[in-house]
Amino acid sequence: MNRRKFVQNSGLGAMAALLGTEIVFGNTLPKGYIPLGLQDPDPFKMFDKNPEMLVLNDKPWNIESLAHLLDDRVTPNRSMFIRNNGIIPQEIDLATWTLTFDGESVRGKKSYTLADLKSRFSQHTYQLTIECGGNGRSEFNPPAKGNQWSVGAVHSAEWTGVRLRDVLEDVGITSDAVYIGFHAADTHLSGDPKKEPISRGFPIAKAMQDETLLAFQMNGKDIPLAHGYPLRLVAGGWPASTSGKWLTGISVRDKVHDGPKMTGTSYRVPCLPVAPGTEVADEDMCIIESMPVKSLITYPKTGATLSQGKSLSFRGHAWAGELEVTRMEYSIDFGSNWKECTLEAPANRLAWQHFSGETRFPQKGYYEVWVRATDSRGNAQPMVLPGWNPKGYLNNACHRIAVKVS
Amino acid sequence: MKTPENSFEQSVRAISRMMGLIFVMFLFIGGGLVYLMIDPTLSAFQSKPEETLIAIAPPEEDDFDKIENGIHLRTGFVEGEGLMTVVNNCTNCHSAKLVTQNRMDSEGWRKTIKWMQETQNLWDLGKNEDIIVDYLATYYAPGKKGRRQNLANIEWYVLED
């Protein structure tokens, strides 16, 4: 029996059971109408995303943005990539939602409602750059396993919430605390209720930073469901997987957190550089912390043609994980000559920085505009792929756009 | 006059009438049950369901596993030996897109299966494992990419001032 006939033949109760939630105003549903959740989903409508974005995976949802869609100084929801490991939670009740702190290194287990968090701690807003650890994976050779991200798994939105540090101080943690690990309301793809799709975290030092938030707003509104509504841990500058969505718990650990996707090869790179294709034992893989220096040309879109004599204005963003970008350069001759771009200071620490430049082309022909950011420690983006690693993380090779002058 | 023969004949007739009635009843009940098996919702006795209001109604699939231009339409997998074994074992938990966007040799695909069995509740594939690995390593094998590829799939447009 196909799904459509099945839906037609079953009552409201069966539809509600399929959706996993009650159908409010179900009695006013037009006869024959199929609720959105049961339709062949249009992810762009469902998540309010730009339809130019690329669906890499629909179970779980993984949707990539494109460089030219990331032109806004503060990324709107419409252009933000989605990277999910499990199934988005279906039933969210704000009144009963709690965040529970436990683990070896808390003085005692303690829970907070959303209202507790909002009323008892001071609120802060930061623009925070969050990039998927596997952004750029599609370029690695030999290929690395996983969602094949190109350049669009990064965003820099404004997040509002309370500081994790303030809440940890209220909970009370012991001096042997080493790491925090998050727990969330999403469910495992296998349907096994005992399995967590992902439970990652970071060292206490990162948890204690001003900008590390328990956020309940994004860009001044409730966080969109796909990005962690109603509560998200946000750790700017680190792999996006450390910014746990749909947050329900934080374990304060006396050792490195060992939840799913913390161990083995997940979000880890070889501790020592290896030749492409090398097999690396789990114990020789080290956890990724700060993301590397990187940049993106967001205007113009690749493929621009212009007539000879015209100048080209271009712009974009640059970021450097925990660090700041201190220098921005561009090349129109495949890296032979580099010229300076204008570079702005970040809105706050861990926000991406805007750059711009203007160039002329000496004669007709095919060009590529390359950009290269350098961080405050002097690390610059490589022109070719950086060190190969088995899972294809941390590709920060310079971004390129194609330009034709005729 | 009522003779013993007559009364016997009458009894026989009554019994045969009853038998006939019972036979017809069984026929009716049996027929009804067979009909219920075919049409459990008794849709033939109901008015036609109203037209569905959905804007983009999914077309009635005449062939759930239709293959067009060498592509299994429902999943996007390429046609080849082992296709349905892959469809039936590899698209229950995650999307086929997670498979088709990856490239690995047989060792890589086998390791991925082992990882899914150890951590993601994938079942024992038995004899199907070789069929699946052969299919994947044939149709989703790594190509040579080098350290940086040319910019590809560029859609040229005129940049206005």
Quickly list its features.
heterodimer, A: 406 residues, mainly beta, Sulfite Oxidase, Chain A, domain 2, Immunoglobulin-like, 5-stranded mixed β-sheet, disordered N terminus, B: 161 residues, mainly alpha, Cytochrome Bc1 Complex, Chain D, domain 2, 3 strands
Task: Reconstruct the topology from this structure.
The complex is a heterodimer of chains A (406) and B (161).
Chain A: H1 3-9, H2 12-19, H3 43-46, E1 54-58, E2 61-64, E3 82-83, E4 98-102, E5 110-113, H4 114-120, E6 123-131, E7 154-163, H5 164-171, E8 179-184, E9 201-203, H6 204-207, E10 213-218, E11 221-222, E12 232-234, E13 247-253, E14 268-270, E15 285-287, E16 294-299, E17 304-306, E18 312-319, E19 325-331, E20 339-340, E21 342-343, E22 353-359, E23 365-375, E24 400-405
Parallel strand pairs in A: 4-13, 17-24
Antiparallel strand pairs in A: 1-2, 2-3, 4-5, 6-7, 7-10, 8-9, 8-13, 10-11, 10-12, 14-15, 16-18, 18-22, 19-20, 19-23, 21-22, 23-24
Chain B: H1 4-38, E1 67-68, E2 71-72, H2 83-90, H3 96-100, H4 106-119, H5 128-139, E3 157-158
What does this structure look like?
The complex is a heterodimer of chains A (406) and B (161). Chain A is mainly beta and 406 residues long. Chain A has three domains: 1-40, no CATH class; 83-287, Oxidoreductase, molybdopterin-binding domain (Sulfite Oxidase, Chain A, domain 2), CATH 3.90.420; 294-405, Sandwich (Immunoglobulin-like). Helix content of chain A is 9%, strand content 31%. The N and C termini of chain A lie far apart (58 Å). Among the domains of chain B are: 7-45; 67-139, Cytochrome c-like domain (Cytochrome Bc1 Complex, Chain D, domain 2, Orthogonal Bundle), CATH 1.10.760.10. Chain B has five helices and three strands. Chain B has helices at residues 4-38, 83-90, 96-100, 106-119, 128-139; strands at 67-68, 71-72, 157-158. Chain B has a two-stranded antiparallel ribbon. In chain B, β1 (67-68) and β2 (71-72) form a beta hairpin. The longest helix of chain B is centred in the first third of the chain and has 35 residues, at 4-38. Mean pLDDT of chain B is 82; it is low at 48-55. Classes of the chains: A mainly beta (406), B mainly alpha (161). At the A-B interface, α1, β1, β17 and β24 of A face α4 and β3 of B. β17 of chain A pairs parallel with β3 of chain B.
